[in-house]
Amino acid sequence: MIRLEKRPQPSRAWSLATPLVAVLATMAFGGLLFAALGKPPVEAIRTIFWEPLFGEFAFYYRPQLLVKGAPLVLIAIGLSLGFRAGIWNIGAEGQYIMGAIFGAGAGLAFYPSDSFLIFPFMVIAGAFGGWIWAMIPAVLKTRFGTNEILVSLMLVYVAEQFLASVSLGLLKNPEGFGFPGSRNLQSWDAAHNAELIAGTGMHWGVVSALIAVIFAYVLLNRHMTGYHIRLTGEAPRAARFAGVNPARLVLFCLGTSGALAGLAGMFEVSGPSGQVSIDFNVGYGFTAIIVAFLGRLHPVGILLAGGLMALTYIGGDIAQSNLQLPAAAIQVFQGMLLFFLLAFDLLTNFRIAIGKPEVA
Amino acid sequence: MDLSAINPVLLIASLMVAATPLLLAAIGELVVEKSGVLNLGVEGMMIVGAIAGFATAVESGSPLLGFVAAAFAGAALSVLFAILTQFAQANQVASGLSLTLFGLGLSALMGQSYVGIKPPRMGDIHIPVLSDLPVIGPILFGHDIILYFGIALTAAVWWMLKYSRMGLVLRAVGENHDAAHALGYKVLRIRLMAILFGGACAGLGGAYISLIRVPQWTEGMTAGIGWIALALVVFASWKPWRALLGAYLFGGVTVVQLNLQAAGVAIPVEYLAMSPYLITILVLVILSADKSSAPASLGRNFHASR
Description:
Number of strands of chain B: 0
Structural class of chain A: mainly alpha
Organism (chain A): Leisingera daeponensis
Shape of chain A: globular
Radius of gyration of chain B: 20 Å
Distance between the termini of chain B: 69 Å
Helix content of chain B: 55-70%
Largest sheet of chain A: 2 strands, antiparallel
Keywords (chain A): Cell membrane, Membrane, Transmembrane, Transmembrane helix
Oligomer: heterodimer
Radius of gyration of chain A: 22 Å
Strand content of chain B: under 5%
Strand order of the largest sheet of chain A: 1-2
Number of helices of chain B: 12
Largest sheet of chain B: none
Helix content of chain A: 55-70%
Subcellular location (chain A): Cell membrane
Membrane topology (chain A): Multi-pass membrane protein
Main location (chain A): membrane
Number of helices of chain A: 15
């Protein structure tokens, strides 16, 4: 008879191995899925994971890895702080959108000035936009006990409508021949989040993502607030006795994740995407949830997971053009990854025992 | 702006149609939460139900068969959630989220060849004298059968929870799974049943959107209705009849804002489209002060140590 025995301590080895096992399982089942769609499975997996790194056109795809990975890592780092403490911000997509709108709006207000202060101002405005949007569920939770999961998620739909509204109205390019969307920030040097070293994909968003990783690592390991976050997640009752203020923690976690998501949106709108438009957001805020879990809510893990997820985005694009693999198949692939991760996590906390249980 | 273009009879009739997917999904989730499980994957199960029902109805020509398929598809997806949370002891919030992300992708994949197709129409029932009554006829007696099924299901769940032994056991498991286990009830089995029921209901709700309310298939067409259904369960304080009331309230908001859009009110379309979500938040804030009626074991995993 097979049964589960709870481990006295979560297994460290399994905790590290689970993401790898989950990725392998996803590759296997993803291959089956691709085969069911009539695509060569091995070829498809190779295209997704190998082609962007070492393929013929890797010189073009490698910089893309940074461009796609940076927003994922930035958002996931913020989310992981809350997730550790059982504070569920799942509206990062909305905070990302608001960051982009605030950032671009703050810059466009000064068009066509070429002051060097414009870009820093946009960065602050972007972070503020995401922060204020995340403060809505945070304040509602601390003041009225409202569920932050539902409120932050509802605000994604509100932000999407707001995005449509500003790209058709407030921020619409006056010289855009009536097309929706703002002025293109890429063609305005003062506001352009350009590559720092040409051809590397390295822009300010990537730099911020790396800073965020270090910041989160120090916070969680060397700082009282980080200790409170971990304590609340692992032993909520003990945390309360130790004098952790839950309301402050909610405000801090949601606020930080909102500000980081807002930053990600701002760097995206002023760099790779270039303009505020109706379909500006592509779901980074939701994919970042997978990244956070895949990285075990650990800053360094998230950095690696963000890279892997960026790889599936880029590889998915290549597979789409080379093998006509549907874009949705990649979405399923990413969803599967989270499934397997959660399933294999069983082995971290439980031991599989065979035989009859002993009488205690 | 021409508000006289809005016909109140049609408005109330379409309100009931708009409320039905919400009601179906919310009743399912209500039972799941009563058993102490928080399944945040409603949105994912709904959208998979929507495409499974749509595809089956198109291929077979029978909308009713589509609804059956949708219920099975929703339940099948919920099995994944059950495996994760009940057997692999995974965090329920994370598992529910993964179900939604997976479901959105899966539905987009399944639905590729069904974009722009019209599904077979589900006939409205016609009761000889009653359906011909002015005003009351079209509002109460001129709908499709699934709408009445939703109301009947509400009544059945209410009766089951309040008066049946099964309902009592379900609530016991939701309130205190350790005590229920000690009394000899199979906690995991009961929760599994509840999760399957919730999945089937969410699937039905999704199919109602793609087959009757819209009716066509577009990617991501549930647009947060699954999440609103989750909010509705809180709104209803875990009571079936209040879920019905809430569904009609939200259905009303949706229909009124759509009618205002059509009538060309001076408020921009985007702000009208925001209103159902904003009102959901508002209602959550007003009602979240009282949490006493929430099942005590909600969201906590159960593992029998021996």
